[in-house]
Amino acid sequence: MTNHTFTIGGDMPVNRMGFGAMRITGPGIWGPPADKAGALNVLKTCVNLGVNFIDTADAYGPEVSENLIAEALYPYPEGLVIATKVVLPVRAPQPLDAKADPEYIENARKAVSNG
After folding, report:
1. Phi-psi map region of 79: left, alpha, beta (phi>0 left; psi -120 to 50 alpha)
2. pTM of the predicted model, to two decimals?
3. Alpha-carbon distance 65 to 68, whole Å?
4. Of 8, 41, 43, 60, which sees the most CB atoms within 10 A?
């Protein structure tokens, strides 16, 4: 029998089926989505169907994916895990500087958690 959950960091159980939020942004993973209401609905529907792990990055948009997640789901339901990372979009229309220093990451975490 397949285990349908696993634990992250020893104390965060998540379902094996998660949601990768890269594609809720605009074309080429850049800018806002053409259908913002649809993107918000996708996020709400995922959680309503039992997804409790969302993978995102502040470079998606940039910052669009994380802002949509906050708008759609805050206050976050108990047990929802949102994992963000430092990456660069594959096809950004202009070069981006990677930001991965601890202060930047902590400020991004605070922005997503609203404090």
Report:
1. left
2. 0.76
3. 5
4. 60
60 is catalytic: yes
Looking at residue 32, its amino acid is P
Q: Which of 31, 87, 35, 38 is nearest to 59 (CA)?
A: 87
pLDDT per residue as tens digits for the range 9-43: 888 889 989 999 999 999 888 899 999 999 999 99
Q: What distance in Å separates the CA atoms of residue 79 and residue 77, rounded to the nearest whole number?
A: 6
Residue type, 83: A
Catalytic residue among 60, 74, 76, 104: 60
Note whether 82 and 46 are within 8 A (CB): no
